[in-house]
Amino acid sequence: MKAMYDKINARLQALVQNCQETSLQEAMLYSVNAGGKRLRAMLLLGACEAVKGSYDEVDLDFACALELIHNYSLIHDDLPCMDNDDLRRGKPTSHKVFGEAMAILAGDALLNRAFETMANLCDSPQNIKAMRVIISASGDNGMIAGQVQDILNENKKIDSSTLSNIYSKKTGKLFVAAFMAGALLGGADEKYVAAIEQVGMKLGLAFQILDDILEVESTAEILGKSTDSDSRNQKNTYVSVHGLEAAKVDYQQISAEALTALNKLPQKTDSLCDIVLSVIKRKM
Ligand code: IPE
Ligand code: IPE
Ligand code: MG
Ligand code: MG
User: What's the burial of 176, exposed, middle or buried (CB within 10 Å: 0-12/13-18/19+)?
Assistant: First the structure.
């Protein structure tokens, strides 16, 4: 996993350095190099490896494109008009360092860099399919829709199915895209892609429930982000809707379902299983 993590970081750096606008590149690199876990990129490469036995430079670029989209989403998510957070990955958020205008533009630029990176590789049907999966997962029926619903439901009482729907989009979609795009790049058939989609759906939901539990139980030092963001913004979270104890029970249950779905895949590798376990067992 360490080798994969290092390759992702090196390639992310190189992709962002394509930006010729010095001050913009500085803001883009600040966020990209702030030390994310790279979970979505690693899951994409792990899924690809599970199908074709290895991953190459093209797959790495798709993994980095997904990671760039995730990084842009975090910059925008932290803005004063969104969650208004000052700390991300243990550092001041982009708008705190560069101002709001530059933070918005750095986010925009990371998104466009992601699209350009994938567009440069669209010379085979499987690459085009992988690009479609990533773009649609991050778009107006995917992650952005989830962010919209997250904001529209601030300070409102919602039921558990509405919350699950928000989570499946704002967080789940990029996890699902990681698994599906990785499998597609590996050359998987439709049946395999449908099966691995289930792993992504379960893992994405488990990931966000754990995020809510950690926000209540952990510290800003460990998490690298503030622990009062959800309460301050009167967000609906798994903990506020179900209670902490039920959140923990459901977290165990849904993580177990993710592992069951993973174990049912006709092809998998120890590497993919290790990455999935690292998501489930994460402390930050
Ligand atoms: C944080 O995601 C945003 C959520 C969807 C909760 P990660 O915890 O994967 O963030 P980084 O990339 O490791 O900082
Ligand atoms: C972030 O969700 C999801 C996206 C950026 C798409 P949250 O707002 O719940 O995550 P944190 O707590 O800021 O990381
Ligand atoms: Mg948010
Ligand atoms: Mg937030």
Answer: buried
Tokens, residue 146: 């989830």
What band does 85 get if pLDDT is binned at 50, 70 and 90?
very high
How much distance in Å is there from the Cα of 109 to the middle of ligand 4? 20
Listed in sequence order, the residues at least 6 apart from 15 whose beta carbon sits closer than 8 Å to its beta carbon are 61, 64, 68, 113, 117
Question: Is any ligand 2 atom within 6 A of the Cβ of residue 212?
Answer: no
pTM > 0.70: yes or no: yes
Of 37, 78, 83, best ligand 2 pocket probe by most atoms within 8 Å of the beta carbon: 83
C-alpha 86/C-alpha 94 separation (Å) is 8
**Can you spell out the DSSP letters for 134-185?**
HHHHHSTTTHHHHHHHHHHTTTS---HHHHHHHHIIIIIHHHHHHHHHHHHH
